[in-house]
Design a protein that fits this description.
The strands form two sheets. Strands 7-6-5-2-1-9 form a six-stranded antiparallel sheet. It is of the alpha+beta class. Helix content is 33%, strand content 36%. The chain has two domains: 44 residues; 163 residues, no CATH class.
């Protein structure tokens, strides 16, 4: 009886191991195919240090659409943050992919669709009068985008501010005149990339200081 149980346990372990191997093999083939497609469309992204993160912004025809080509090193646990939400992804292999943020706006709401290599999501940024204010004053929004001037390299423990959308002084003044409470926080959207450890370290520093980047 004991021998039968042991054999069954070994069989289950073999089946589970084979399933993991098949899944990892499929993932490796998917990563290789994605890399080949990106290289064909955008050229070779020169990786001088495979342990670093590489980011370069890509052009779009829509001012509300932002894209990046991103390289992440093997075993990098990515944490993506936007406003109060976040998502995580990890791979045992290096990753070369397109990440994007696309704002969708009308007179009632401003939402954002965010996508990276292993997931995507839609979230709200503003609604009502403030959403209309952002649309009407879009030319006054200050845009800070990582990689906008070319390829940027970062250490793996660095937090990257991929995108920050911020009201300029004129836009803040108009919001204040319209009695919109959002004028108190000029940055109305951000997209950040780092590791859970890096964000925890930043949060610890911010708790020790009254000034810090919103989490």
């Amino acid at each position: 009886m004991t021998t039968k149980i042991l054999n069954l346990t070994l069989l289950v372990a073999v089946v589970i191991g084979a399933a993991f191997a098949l899944r990892e093999g499929a993932r490796q083939r998917e990563l290789k195919a994605t890399h080949e497609l990106l290289t064909a469309e955008f050229g070779l992204l020169r990786i001088e240090s495979p342990d670093k993160i590489y980011v370069v912004a890509l052009p779009t025809s829509d001012p509300l659409h932002f894209r990046w080509r991103i390289y992440l090193p093997a075993n990098y646990q990515a944490e993506w943050r936007s406003g109060g939400g976040y998502g995580r992804s990890r791979s045992s292999s290096p990753r070369d992919f397109i990440a994007q943020v696309r704002l969708r706006a009308d007179d009632q709401a401003l939402s954002v669709f965010a996508q990276e290599d292993m997931g995507s999501g839609l979230s709200g940024v503003a609604n009502g009068s403030f959403a209309k204010h952002v649309i009407d004053y879009w030319e006054h929004v200050e845009i800070s985008q990582a990689g906008a001037s070319g390829v940027e390299a970062y250490d793996a423990d660095h937090i990257i501010n991929l995108l920050e959308l911020r009201m300029n002084e004129e836009m803040v003044a108009a919001a204040k005149q319209m009695k919109l409470n959002q004028y108190r926080i000029p940055t109305f959207f951000f997209r950040r990339l780092g590791t859970p450890q890096a964000f925890k370290a930043e949060a610890d520093r911010n708790r020790a200081s009254p000034v810090g980047t919103p989490q």
